[in-house]
Structures are given as C-alpha cells and as structure tokens.
C-alpha cells in the first residue's frame, strides 16, 4: 500500500526534530570549545607502575650495572592515545624493593641508583636523569628497599612511543655479579587535558 | 505611564492572528488589502510574537513597580529544579531585595546527595523576566562506579569511583516566565567549573606489571543548564 507523502513526512518529523535538536545542542558546544571555554583536566597523583620480579643483570667488575625498564602505558591507560587528549607525565620516584625470598638479602651494598629517560628511536630528545638515590651516611645498613626521588621535572609524554615508555636504570655499589630480581615501582604524576572540540 | 495588561491585550489582538472569529477582519486591518493573500503566521511565529509581547510586559514591570500603589513582592518561596551539574533540587528561596534572591537547599545528582545555593539577580519584574544566577554546590558523595568497565575506564577502579565527591560553581543566564508573586517557570543555561575528586587508588594490569591508579582530581569547565518551578508565598 502506498503511503501518502504527507503521512511519510509526518512520520519522519520526530526524527528530523531530534536531529535538529542535536545539531542545535552541539553547535553551541563547538562554539564554546572553539573559544577555549570548555576544557577538562584530570590529575592522578597516584599512578604507580609495579614490575614484580624484574630481572636485573649482574654488576660489572667495577660494581656498576644498567638495565632497561619498559612501562606499558598503552595497555593500562589507552585513553591517552585518543584524539583531543594531551597529557603530561612526570616521574615522582622509583622504588627498588626485594621480596623476602629474594636471592639478595638486602640493598645495603647499593651506593647509587638512578633512572634516566630513553628517547624513542630516531628522536633527538635529550636523555636526562629523572630520579637519583645516593646512600646517605648513617642510613639503614640492611634496607629491603630504597626510593630514588625525582631530580628533574621533565615531561615524559614525548618519550612514549607506541604506548611504551622506556627508561634506563643504573646502579653502583657492592652489588651481586650474577643476575638477581627485584620489584621496581615507578610512581608518576599524570595530568590529562581533554579538548572537547576534537571529542565532539 | 503605566502599560497595563489590558493595553497590551489590544496590541496582542493585532499581532496575534489566532483562532478568533474576527481573525480575518483583524488581518485586513493590520495588513491591508494587499496582505490578504499572505499566509497565516506559523505556530513558531505566533510563539515569537507572544514572547516579544511578554518581554514588553516585563520591561514595563519596573514602571509599574515604581507607582506608590505597587504591592511589595513576596519574600519567601520554594524552588524545584533539575539540571546539570546541579542535579534535582528542592530549595528555599528568599527575596532580600527587589532584584536579588538567595536560595539554598539539598539536591540529588543521580549519583549522590549534596547541597547547593545561589544568588539570582532579576533586574526586571514581569511575566517574562531575564535573570542572572550564580550557583555553587557540593556533592557529598557521588557514586561514579557505573563508569568502571565502560570505555577506557578500568573495571578495577569501581571502588574508587564509588567514593567520588564534587564541587561546582556555575553562572547562568535565563528567564523566569510567570508571576513574580506566585508560580513561575524558569530555564537557564551557562557554564560551570566542576572539581571532582576520587580519593583512594586501585590496581589494574599494565603489561608485565600492574598499575596503581587513583587520588584523581577532575577539573573541568562544562556547559550548565537547568529548568524548574518557583513558588512564592
């Protein structure tokens, strides 16, 4: 049966009204967004990546060692790569801890521990030191963990490549010459800005 | 000069064609011989004309109020409103001065209870009165756990999101439509600054390790809007 055109138009009317209404709502938002009046900032003061049982190579003859650290931000925080999302990531501290069952009894032999940024391949970014621990005089001679506080305020967002942040850890002291394992916890301050204009 | 409702009524009859039997006579009086073929105004046009008339009436309000015979406006009232980010509220309202009202009361945001209050400035008295409103509110506890598992929000964050709270400050522009002595409807829109906090942290998987995420603060500028009814005693 053929539906009269006026009836069809009447049937479409509610949908058309909804579409018009949606456009009417979105347009002012776009306008406000274009004027920079709409924004959102999310700050997470606790964003701590923990790598349990992380393999650390044995120290060289001079008591030095270095190990890469790879943190997968892409899996944990996938929204960071969405359009309209800008973020800043600053390393607050890194803690090196031993499990009670670890082969190494304590970290009393650790004199210096530092972590630096590693620039993505092909990037000309500098590779600054981010955190540093130096054993203070009179410190606990047999600590189960040490924490290296931040020495720089570098934004690490440009260092994230395909969701992965690569850091380089180095240590010096009376350290085991054979590989050992420790729990590495890297705590960041994360600030995320959302631009509505690109989200709408 | 006081422009009363009866005077505007005559104007209204000319401007509003509508459904009276003498509609054609009025149309010919206002539009003349040439306008006889013009189509009747649409519902939208009639609404716009009514709005203009009501606005004229509201602009005439202060003049009416200035006459010695004008009765003072009621001092106390109630407000029922709904909107974002202020939720649905039941507020007590007091008219501190001719053009200034203060209001305060509890609200339900859909995710938790809170309190809010504000100041409304109504520079004109009338059936349709433009207003400016400043409002602030605090949501004691906002259960945002429904966001966990949606989009990119990890499901493990549900306990943290369940204990969120927020505060906001909003500025609105709008109109009150109705009697400033009795019942009136209002609609307002503007911008709000919203600060939400979610204390605590939760652990989620992150590659070969875990991520402890929390103690988050959201600071956002968002559109704000509300509508409601107010009743003066």
| Distance between the first and last residues' Cα of chain B | 29 Å
Helix and strand pattern of chain A: HEEHEEEEEEEH
What level of helicity do the residues of chain A show? 10-25%
CATH class type of the largest domain in chain A: Mainly Beta
Low-pLDDT segments, ≥5 res of chain A: none
Q: What general outline of chain A do the C-alpha atoms trace?
A: elongated
Report the strand count of chain B.
8
Low-confidence stretches of chain B are 1-36, 58-68
List key phrases describing it:
heterodimer, A: 200 residues, alpha+beta, Jelly Rolls, 2 domains, 9 strands, B: 233 residues, Porin, 20% helix, disordered N terminus
Verbal overview:
The complex is a heterodimer of chains A (200) and B (233). Chain A has 200 residues and is an alpha+beta fold. Chain A is built from three helices and nine strands. Chain A has two domains: 1-37; 40-199, Jelly Rolls, CATH 2.60.120. In chain A, 19% of the residues lie in helices and 43% in strands. In chain A, the strands form two sheets. In chain A, strands 2, 4, 5, 7 and 8 form a five-stranded antiparallel beta sheet that branches. A four-stranded antiparallel beta sheet of chain A has the order 1-9-3-6, with no helix packed on it. In chain A, a hairpin with a 2-residue loop joins strand 7 and strand 8 (164-173). The two termini of chain A are 41 Å apart. Chain B is built from five helices and eight strands; from the N terminus they run H-H-H-H-E-E-E-E-E-H-E-E-E. The model of chain B is unreliable at 1-36 and 58-68 (pLDDT under 50). Helices cover 20% and strands 50% of the residues of chain B. The two termini of chain B are 29 Å apart. Chain B has an eight-stranded antiparallel β-barrel with strand order 1-2-3-4-5-6-7-8. Chain B has two domains: 5-66, no CATH class; 76-232, Porin (Beta Barrel). Chain B is of the alpha+beta class and 233 residues long. The A-B interface holds A 28-29, 32, 37-52, 70-73, 75-79, 82, 194 and B 151-152, 154, 191, 201, 204-223.
